[in-house]
Amino acid sequence: FGTENDGYTLDVMGKWDGDIDNVIEGMLASGIDHKNSRTGIELRFDEYTPERAKKILDAGFFAAAYNILGRTSEEYRRIISYGVTEFTEDKHCSMGLDW
């Protein structure tokens, strides 16, 4: 990725303890220049609440959700209303690797 971190997300899988404040604090302490690049925090789709998304956005990150397969249009509308704008799945690339 060179020196660019445009579109970078921190996937909190494996580090998630349910405390979004700790995740945000860790991101800010990491030294990532999120003010001059597009940097986000990625949570599981079903871990999002309006409060968690607001904290992520208020801290200057974008909100991303993963594990999206099988979601309904209603579920997408709900999570988009929180401010979540990026979506990915556990199965990466066309090889179907399950990370």
Descriptive account of the structure:
The chain is α/β, with parallel strands linked by helices. Helices cover 28% and strands 23% of the residues. The protein contains three helices and six strands, in the order E-H-E-H-E-H-E-E-E. It has a four-stranded parallel sheet with strand order 1-2-3-4. A two-stranded antiparallel ribbon has the order 5-6. The two termini are 20 Å apart. 23% of the residues are buried. Residues 1-6 and 93-99 have low confidence and may be disordered.
Concise structural overview:
By secondary structure, the protein is α/β, with parallel strands linked by helices. It contains three helices and six strands, in the order βαβαβαβββ.
Record field, number of beta strands: 6
Find the structural class using helix and strand composition: alpha/beta
Which H/E pattern describes the elements?
Answer: EHEHEHEEE
| Number of discrete helical segments | 3
Q: What portion of residues belong to β-strands?
A: 15-25%
Low-pLDDT regions: 1-6, 93-99
Helix content: 25-40%
Enumerate the strands of the largest sheet in spatial order, edge to edge or round the barrel.
Answer: 1-2-3-4
CA distance, first residue to last residue: 20 Å
